[in-house]
Structures are given as C-alpha cells and as structure tokens.
Amino acid sequence: MKITKITLNVSTKRILTTGGGQDCVFVLFRTPVSLKDGNSVDHGASASILYGTSPLTFAPADGKEMRFDVVRFRTTSADRQYMASMELPMNSLAEIPDSISIINILHSMKERLLSGGRYLSEYMELAMRMIFICICDSNASRTSDIPEISRYKELKELRDSIYDDPLNDWSVSDICSSLGISRTYFHRIYMQAFGVTCRQDVIESRLLRAEELLRTTDMSVSEISEECGYESESYFMRQFRAKKGCTPTEFRRINK
Question: Which of 19, 28, 119, 150 is spaced 20 to 30 Å from 227 by Cα?
C-alpha cells in the first residue's frame, strides 16, 4: 500500500466531487454530510467513507460548512484481499461513534509522512490498517456493550463538543451540574467510555487547534498559546512538546 496524499482539516461550503484516477480514497467527515448518488443520505458529525477509483459527490447536509480529512492511497492485490476479508463498508457512508482515534491516527500519519524515515511505508500501511480496524469496530459497536455505559450518548455528545469547540471553558463542575451527577461519578464513566479523562480530551483538542494554527497562519507562538486558552506560554510549550514530541516552532518548520 502506498499513501499518495494526506489532507487534513479541509473546510468548504461547496458541493464536492472527488475520486477518479488510480487512487483509492478514505474520507473522514467531521460535520454532517450528504452523499449524492441518486439519493441523499445525511449523517451526523462522525461519518466516514472508503471507496475506490469511481468519483463520488458530497455536500453539507445542513447547508453549512463541511469539514473533513482525506487520505489517498494505492493498493496491491494483497491489500485488496485484506480489505475484502475485513468486509469493510465500501462506497457508502459509515457512521463512526467515536472518530477521535481515527483523527489521532491521521495526524500521526501526516507528521510521519513529512518527516520521512527508513520504515515510512511500513508505518503508513500499519496506520491505514488501524483505521480499517476502527471502521470495522465502529460498525460492530452498534451491537456491542458500548451503549450500556451509563449516560454514553450524553458523554459522546459532550466529547464531540469539546473537539468542535476546544476554546470553550470546559469546567468539570459546570458539566457535572448540567448532567446532574457528581464529579467522581463523571470521571469514572467518562474514563470507562473513552479510556481517557475529560481533561485529557480538552488538552488534546486545544493542541489539535494549535497544530492547525501553526500550519495555516503566521501567528506567533505566544499568540497561538493565548488563542488556545493558555495563560502561560511556557506551560503551553511544555505541554505541546510532551504530547507532540517537538516544540511548536519545530512543528511549524516541519509542517508549513
């Protein structure tokens, strides 16, 4: 498998036709989307599609901005056999109850593609297989034990909101008050649902926003730190380095 292009955080209000050529395409939609194939199928803010070389047309389901990530790749016969064995949903929108894992994999792939390395192709192939597994697990989760987690739907909506609006003041006290539960109980069921704390998700969402600003703007590190809700630039830089393995300046140099 060869990754030919990765494009993250695409935003458009236009109807989009993509596909064609030799590449297969994987798209992860962050916002509601309609697939135009004779019928319009609307999905919520977490949906993906995996398809071959045939062009497909998409449009924002709510008339607002459509946000998504795209990976283009070429497959060998062994890759196609592997994908067929997993019974991946092809050429149709698949609902993804928890897209954060896939988002993190995509960011890791983008960084690795830019930095290169001896085992780049092996890394990329394994990363794509991890995405395939996430898609399959998402389909299986409809009949899994996940919905049995207490308040799961509300927690999932909260987590999506955190990543959609990372600069909001996500006060655990306010969250618990709105849910009508104690802090201890909230921390327990959040960890049970997602394997991380709410605070860790808030930090990750803000660092993803910082990455986007570093890639797409000329804002200073100090300005980005403030924009992402950090009162201390030095604390922002320490947290960024601890999570991303490089300083904000180094990240910008690699990814600009």
Answer: 28
